[in-house]
Amino acid sequence: MLGQWFKKVFSQQKQQSQDIEKSKKEQNAQSINPSLPHTLLLLKDQFGQSPDFTVRTLSGQPADPSGLAVCYFEGLIDQKLLTSLFEGLIHGGSDNTQSKTNPNQIASRLLESLPSGHIQIIRTEDQLLTEILSGSAVIIMNNCPFSLAVMISGGARRSVEEPSSQTVVRGPKEGFTEDVTTNIALVRRKIRSPKLKFETHNIGQLTHTTVVIAYIQDVANPDVVQELTQRLQSIDTDSILESGYIEEFIQDSPLSPFPMMIDTERPDTVAGGLLDGQVAVLVDGTPFALIAPVTFFNFFQTPEDYYQRYDISTFLRCLRLVAFLVSLLLPSLYIALTTFQQEMIPTTLLISLTAQREGTPFPALVETLLMEITFEVIREAGIRMPRVIGPAISIVGALVIGQAAVEAGLVSGAIVIVVSFTAISNFVIPYFSMSSAIRLLRFALMFLAGFLGIFGILAGLIPLLAHLLSLKSFGVDYLMPYGPFFKSNMKDLVIRAPWWAMKTRPNVKSGGNRIRQAPHQYPKGTSNRLDNMKEPEQ
Amino acid sequence: MGKHTLRVSELVICLSLFEIGSTTLFFMGSEAKQDAWLAMLIGALAGLILLILHLSIYRQEPNLDLFQLFRRYTGKYMGSLLNFMFVGYFAYETSRNVRDLGEVTLLTLLTRTPLWIVSLIAILVVANTVRYGYKVFFLICVILFPGMVVGYAIISILFPATGLLHLEFFLPILENGWMPVFKAAIPEIVSFPFGQVVLFLVFYPHARRAKNLPKAVITVYLLTALALTFLNQLIVLVMGHKLASFSTLPLLQSVQLIRLTEVFERTDALFILLFFLGLGIKMAAFFTGAVIGLERITGVSFKTWVFPMGAVIYGVSFLSPNYTHHIIVGRDITLNTSSPFFQIVLPLVLFIIMKIKRAPDNTA
């Protein structure tokens, strides 16, 4: 019912978006006026009095038959490249006086001589504006029906740094930046194959954000690529500022609390995903790339699992799943046991719990909710506050709220342990989107446990399971290797098999070419050469 | 609904859990006293004959489910009438399980909560599962299966480990001859739980084409029957048949006796969850069968029927004024009258009609 209501609301907006598209089509497609002064006037008119918009005229006046102007935005271009562009222009322009009058010849000579790898001929006014706005220097010639756009974009950018939200002990330390070309390079440096494909889309009528789909041909499922492309193309909005916008527009089951795509700022995660047959979406302006299709268990795997020994990785994966269960269930189990099923608690523990709760005024549900909400507030404050005040928050959080609340008789001591262990467990889950989903569900389960005890928890978990089983991410079942069961996927799930034992890619459904490597690579050495090594003489 | 989307493994796992369902709540074959295990085995063998009957119906028309079969072979009106009766039977079985679950909850976990709240939550959870379609339901069974197996295995290990088993309760075997054993087995144990597999005539056609389907179904059926017999006899060996036949929830009462160190004392609350899962699976299976039946009769998608059907089931679950009445109706009346009609008579009639109608085809 909720879904239908959403659909109704959204379909009303569809009409509006069609109107926007119509007006958009009427606007462009006007070709450039050959007169240079006219074009310059148009640009000044369009960009207003922006202080960063620069027009540099060469060869005398713009109205001269050989008039030539270079237009660009100061902050969007690379100063060094601009200097060399001007050097090229001045050398090329003053070369031959005969052909000065013919703009076509000037243009072809410039195309040959300019020191840049990326020159484009543009013919419409709309293109002209877009190119200038995306960091090109545009060379406009008088009496010429087209202009040349030289891509020299640059300017202030963050360099490649260690990712701040997804860290590893062992493994590459580089993270994506806000610049999509850098990000593409980071991925391409890991997979040096012509089969690695990038497809560019331009989304957002105002922001014109570059959105890139990355996949490996023959490894990724072509249907998934096609579906993703189609969904991207059907986005009709004026702005895309972060990959989160894209995610909400293209994900399956938009009303589910569970994330249907992985977001990562690690190039090695993207490369690993691509090699598993997944498809990645890189968005300009954010270091977070999206990966699809994903399964539930992908959210409990980190790239580090593959760099460490397989046994310790397996242990860590089990630990993460336990942490997931704790984070989801511990507060509600505490409520259920202390309120309804006290007999399940061992007697001595029960006595000490009851003694603690003796002086506290609230029922267990209220107590737990109080502490959980307090913790969520502290957690949010930890992210938003200015870094300088950090220590103050930890003192307030740990001492005042933790210890003092117990001493003041507001809550019992056990609940502080429960809430803090739940919180710590929540941080174990590698992907923030998944841990946020669990945070929400935890509150729902706490209410159920508060009213109906263990019965309530079960009544909450079964619909959750049914919901998870009904989810699909780009055609791949969300709980894939368990429900439906795929034996071959079990090698890289909770257990991370050693590399030499993983002959095939893990995702049965996502890839076409499933063979990853040759079989029988158990490292047993090639000969007994080393056995015959001589003992060093004393 | 898509055809052939169920794997055989999913189907048989669900069949196994369906058979376990609510059976472990009760002490089966109490008339046979300490020979309850023999009664169970006889019941299981008789049920096996029924199962083979169902499977041979499926073999003749592997593309049609129970409702389509009746429609085709008994005509439009008669078929619709019989289908309605089957829908009613499935819905009634669901409502019985709703009441069972509600009463068990009131007896054990939530002693002061009103019955209507517990039943309402149970039917909402089950209806929500049914709403996703049979595929999701079968997958839930697959995911819960390891948990159920481990749970019952732990019970089976803990009884001997904590010295609660009294093997002398086996004796004397066949104290009063075979008659009480047969009387206990037929028709009660055949009707519940073994004969209820008639429901799966609705699901067989959705399974992927596989030659081993009948074989897999029979194997899993036999294994489940053995496990049920074992669990049932555990009750006798722990409590003795006299106490067991008086107890409302004998297996649960036995589990309460388990004391392991200081930590695992009253673990029965955890094992109640096993009963709940079993009951829930049985409910969801019958509920799914009922709404698929309504879809076949009316041509309206089953999703539309989930809510009204749920409301009817919820209402019917309150028919009995108290649990004792509910148990007497369930264990004494329906098992001897309506259940054999739906589980034995109708499938047998169907099979015979199919044989007669198809005979000319074979010769021609």
UniProtKB/TrEMBL annotation, chain A:
Pfam families: GerA (PF03323)
Record has Membrane as a keyword: yes
Alphabetically ordered keywords of this record: Membrane, Transmembrane, Transmembrane helix
Residues annotated as transmembrane: 319-337, 412-432, 444-469
Residue ranges, annotated region (Disordered): 509-538
Keyword Transmembrane among record annotations: yes
Family that this chain belongs to: Belongs to the GerABKA family.
Name of the molecule in the record: Spore germination protein B1
Species this protein is from: Paenibacillus auburnensis
From TrEMBL, chain B:
Membrane-topology descriptor: Multi-pass membrane protein
InterPro entries in the cross-refs: Spore_GerAB
Keywords: Germination, Membrane, Transmembrane, Transmembrane helix, Transport
Top-level taxon of the source organism: Bacteria
Locations listed in the record: Membrane
Keyword Transport (UniProt): yes
Chain segments annotated as transmembrane: 12-30, 36-55, 75-92, 104-127, 136-161, 181-204, 216-239, 269-292, 304-320, 340-356
Main localization category: membrane
Pfam families named in the record: Spore_permease
PANTHER family for this protein: SPORE GERMINATION PROTEIN A2 (PTHR34975:SF2)
Family membership: Belongs to the amino acid-polyamine-organocation (APC) superfamily. Spore germination protein (SGP) (TC 2.A.3.9) family.
Name the record gives this protein: Spore germination protein YndE
Organism listed in the record: Paenibacillus auburnensis
